[in-house]
Structure formats: C-alpha cells, structure tokens
Amino acid sequence: MANKWKNTARGQALMVLEEVFQEGAYSNIALNKQLKTSTLSDQDKGLVTELVYGTVARKMTLEWLLAHYIEDRDKLQSWVYDLLLLSLYQLSYLDKIPAHAVVNSAVDLAKERGHGRGAEKLVNGVLRKIIRDPLPDPNSIKRVNKRYSILYSLPVWLVKKLIDQYGEKRAVKIFESLFVRNKASVRVINPDHITEIAEKTGAEPSQLSSVGLTKPSGVFAATDYFKTGQITIQDETSQLVAPALDIQGDDLILDACAAPGGKTVHMVSYLTTGTITALDLYDHKLGLIRDNAERLGLSDKIQTYKLDASLVAQHFPKDHFDKILVDAPCSGIGLIRRKPDIKYNKELQDFSSLQETQLEILASVCQTLKKGGIMVYSTCTIVPEENQEVVAKFLASHPNFEQVELEHKQKDIVLDGCLLITPEQYGTDGFFIAKFRRLA
Length: 440
Fold this sequence. Notes:
- The chain has helices at about 10-25, 25-35, 40-55, 60-65, 80-95, 100-115, 120-130, 145-150, 155-175, 195-200, 225, 240-245, 260-270, 285-295, 310-315, 350-365, 390-395, 425; strands at about 185-190, 205, 210-215, 230-235, 250-255, 275-280, 300-305, 320-325, 370-380, 400-405, 415, 420, 430-440.
- By secondary structure, it is of the alpha/beta class.
C-alpha cells in the first residue's frame, strides 16, 4: 500500500502541482488529465480542484510566507516544498479544514511519498511552527509594487504595468478580481429560448451579451440543453466578437486563429449559404473546432485548414473574403483568473515580439479581404501594446483601411471606438475588440 497517498485528494493535488511547478504543465490541462482517471468522489474531486487552483493562484504569496520558516528551499526535495505550499494554502485560505487535520494529512502523505526517510519530520516541524504563531503580514513590505506583488501573487513587472496603465486604484480592483471564482457562462443558440433556459437552469441574463447566460458556479455542460446543442460554453466577452462583424447570410468568412472554435460556431449561426474557413497551427486544435461544430450540427458550413495565419496571403486569393476575424495569439493576461499559471510565464513580458506577430497576421490576412469588407481584431489581454498600439500601427501602415467605431450599452467598456473589458468590471475574462473596414 506504499502508493495509498496517490488515492487521496491531497495526494492527487500534489501530483498535479508537481507537474505544473516542476515540469511547466498548464494547470487546467494537468488537472483535467488527473481528474479523468481519478476514482475519487465528486466532493473530493472538488477539493483537488480547489487545492490546485488555489495553490497555483497564490503561489508567490505562499512562497514569501514559507521563506520565513525555511532557511534554504534548495535543500528540500521539490515535492516536499510543493507539499508545504499546498498545506500552507489550506492553513491560510481554507477555514473549513481544521489546522490539525491539514498537518496530520500532510505528515502522513510525506511519510508514504518519502518512504519514511524523514521528510515527514521536516513537514511536521515546519507546519507546527506555522500554526503556532501569527503568519507574517505582506502589508509590512515597504515598496509598493513589491507589496502588491506578494499580496496578489503577481510578478512585479505585471503589477507595475497595470498600475501604469489603469492607475493604482483600478489596478488593485483588477488584482483583487483575479481571485474571484470564474462565473459559468454560456451562449444560447436560439435567442427566442433564452428566458425559458434561464428559468430552467437558474441562470441570469448576461450584462454584456444579449445571447449570454451566467451562473456564479454550476455545470451547464451536464444539462440537456447542452447535450442537445441548445447552449454552448462561451465567455460573455467572447460572445461580443461575432456580432461586431455585421455578418450577412451569404458571407465567405475567414477565421484566422480559430481554435477551439467558440467564435467560429457563433459566426456560423448568422450564415445561410455562406461558409467559414477556420485556420489553426495544430491538428489537435483543428479537431476541437470540428468537435464543436459537430455537436451543434454546423459541420457543413466550416472548413478547417492547418495553416499559420501570417501566411494567409500566400495561400488564398486577393479580394476573396467578405469578413475576417483575427482572434490573435496574445499574452492571455485577461485569462489569469481561469489560468493562474499564465502570470508566472516570463515570456509574457516580451510584448514587442507578440505585437510583431499580431501585426504580421493582420498584414497578411487583410490582403485577402474584399473592398468594403470588415475585419475584426480581438485578444484576451488588457495591455495597450497588444491592443490599442496594434490598432494604431496597423492603420498607420494600411491607408486603405479605416477603423469602424464599436458601441455597447455598457459605456464603461467602450474606449477609443474599441471594446476593452477588464476582469473586475463584469467578472469576465479580460478582452479587447477592434473593427476595421477596407476602403472601397
């Protein structure tokens, strides 16, 4: 029974955290893979999810706290350090689990995982020290950016970036919102049924999307409405993209960076005889688009191609598409609430190379748009280098295009004719949308 620890909620959470922290796995993918094969009860699976996301989301705060109790983390085996982070998360943030239970289960886990070679003594000693005295207070940190960094578990560069852009007061609201659990949100396929579906599922109409429903939590995917293709999982912000394209029934549309296909199938809902050409770089991602289309019975209107979007002009004729969507590869900073490990990715700071890629894609795909055609550019990020600057630079280098101003009933998301939604405003992903027209 040496591997009994692997059949416990904390043991499975630890295995996922090791993958994320030691091997650079994405938390959502590693967690889903673990839960798929897990024999735990639904309640225990819920605990695994809470422990993984909570520990990843609060990692920098937990590391700062733990540094007060450990002299040299490099002397610890990585799994022992991860177990201490996991246990400290429970002690600091989960008040339903008694402290002695957290300590005892961590000691048992360390004993089994370490084959009784003494790791359990260290774990016991550190955790007992932690519960004996009040925890150190990050508010005592003098430097402002460093203090926010530790309080909200965000790298200093990102703290500085968001304060510079949004001002300290709004930036702090954004930081705080990243710990609020993501709402469940869906798009209703037939808007005529939205009231009925809202009542039956206990959902609220979206404040942003006229075809969206939301719940604070809950699994829409388990409902018959989902199984029969009457609703589809899609964040409210992403539901604003397809309407921005002014799609006509017979349009030929290019979706340049289409996976996983949520926006693709939304655009199809406006078509009668038209079709969508959906591109992505990877086979498995093209598979996701096809799965999405099949579930909603829309496969006949979508053709998928494996292609780098920056090479579109070499593969498709000029003046070919009526509408083009570029949902560009970006830093994903707007998705931190759902994918907390994004914020620890050092490559995200390289906004200049991300911007270069975004402009390359726009410059290529715009050559295949018909005169008078519409192109929409969207990202799930909230920094100007990937949003407003891209719009300005594209327009400056393409005098045959003009910006079309977007409007919305929620005036606080309209900025310079674009839509910019930050996570604290409506509890959604952070998102940006801009619209262009090719001049006739």
